[in-house]
Automatic annotation (TrEMBL):
Signal peptide: none
Organism (species): Lupinus luteus
Stretches assigned to the Nudix hydrolase domain: 198-339
Functional note: Probably mediates the hydrolysis of some nucleoside diphosphate derivatives.
InterPro entries given in the database record: DUF4743, NUDIX_hydrolase-like_dom_sf, NUDIX_hydrolase_dom
Top-rank taxon: Eukaryota
Pfam families according to UniProt: DUF4743 (PF15916), NUDIX (PF00293)
Protein name, UniProt field: Nudix hydrolase domain-containing protein
PANTHER family linked: THIAMIN PYROPHOSPHOKINASE, THIAMIN PYROPHOSPHOKINASE 1
GO molecular function: 8-oxo-dGDP phosphatase activity
Family note: Belongs to the Nudix hydrolase family.
Length: 367
């Protein structure tokens, strides 16, 4: 069932809306000009319940009153939350390894690294074969994967929680693009401080009941160091060093939702979304590989690693309303679910802003 306009709005009204004149290149939902101030949202709190979520998702008042030309505003706002701070890119230095840009480091954070001159160097011009101008690089004595991983790991350990909070002892590969040679591995929590590309997997677990698709939604544990108590996918996780995407999906399925391997191996890769978010010293350049898994009606998820508080099976149209009207979801989950809405026909080309929204799902460097 495709929708982009309230089902209560007459077709004739819709037709007149789309035939109205407007200035060229003045799309009302241009991602670069969309203002969050024009969108009224329900702010998430750590204390919202499943009843709160269901009440919001089942409420028809706002849908009935929503003007068709502004229906996608809530979705655009969620993309904006994941793509902030582009005007601050000039505050970052390129992080270069073996002649390849692998990340971006804020000038302020770079000051902390200057105390480790046996690990990091700071070329300041394009002389001596350096084409990047001012940048950060690794000391030329660090030649192997193991040497670099150990040396940078030592720096991260010394900087500690004060400079890099949430250290997890989980390594991410440092590379110029997906599938390219890996120069070294870096603590996951440090990834945004070095601006490296981080990859992850997000899986939409859905069930069809009486011809209607439902999504299994997770509510994160209140003890999680990031986004505690917020809504999440049934299965999601970062892509650490040494495991491919599909095997990571299978592993996370077992740990996060108790999905046995004979079911999880049927997860289908369906594309990727990307975003670039700058927040003070943090520069997130994330690519999320998206998977769909159709689950048996009888399946009930069970968390095995303590990171999920509870699960709920919710009709897709209601999940879309929660995303559109609240900030209950962990921000990057909204992008993956919006992509699901496109692929399963819940958002159609008749929607004002259709192509802008679709294009903005991969506004980051998807490589």
């Amino acid at each position: 069932m495709a929708w982009c306009i309230p089902k209560y709005a007459p077709t004739s009204f819709c037709s007149s809306l789309f035939s109205s004149t407007k200035k060229p290149n003045s799309h009302p939902f241009s991602f670069s000009t969309f203002s969050s101030s024009s969108y009224s949202t329900v702010l998430a709190t750590p204390t919202f319940t499943w009843n709160d979520i269901l009440n919001i998702s089942q409420s028809s008042t706002s849908i009935q009153q929503q003007h068709p030309s502004s229906y996608l505003q809530g979705f655009f706002h969620k993309l904006q939350l994941c793509n902030r701070g582009s005007e601050k890119q000039s505050e970052f230095l390129s992080f270069v390894v073996e002649g390849q840009v692998v990340g971006f480091i804020h000038n302020g954070f770079a000051e902390y690294l200057k105390g480790f001159s046996d690990v990091f160097i700071f070329p300041k011009d394009k002389s001596n074969g350096n084409p990047f101008g001012n940048c950060v690089s690794l000391h030329p004595m660090l030649k192997t994967y193991e040497e670099r991983t150990s040396a940078v790991g030592y720096v991260v350990e010394r900087l500690g929680e004060e400079r890099i909070p949430g250290i997890r002892n989980e390594l991410y590969p440092v590379t110029s693009s997906f599938g390219a040679p890996i120069f070294f591995s870096l603590e996951r929590a440090a990834a945004p401080y070095f601006g490296i590309k981080a990859y992850g997997i997000h899986m939409n677990g859905y069930v069809e009941l009486d011809g209607q698709k439902h999504l299994w939604i997770a509510k994160r544990s209140s003890t999680k160091p990031t986004y505690p108590g917020m809504l999440d996918h049934l299965v999601a996780g970062g892509l650490p060093h040494g495991i491919d995407c599909h095997e990571n999906v299978v592993k996370e399925c077992e740990e996060e939702a108790g999905i046995p391997r004979p079911i999880s191996i049927k997860a289908i890769p369906v594309g990727a979304v990307s975003y670039m978010d700058i927040d003070e010293y943090r520069y997130k350049r994330d690519v999320l590989f998206c998977y769909d898994l159709k689950l048996p009606e009888s399946f009930v998820p069970k968390n095995e690693d303590g990171e999920v508080d509870s699960f709920k099976l919710i009709p897709v149209v209601q999940v879309a309303e929660v995303i559109r009207k609240t900030q209950f979801f962990k921000p990057n989950c909204s992008l993956v679910i919006i992509d699901f809405l496109f692929r399963h026909g819940y958002i159609s080309p008749e929607c004002f802003g259709y192509l802008d929204l679709l294009r903005s799902l991969r506004i980051g460097d998807c490589s």
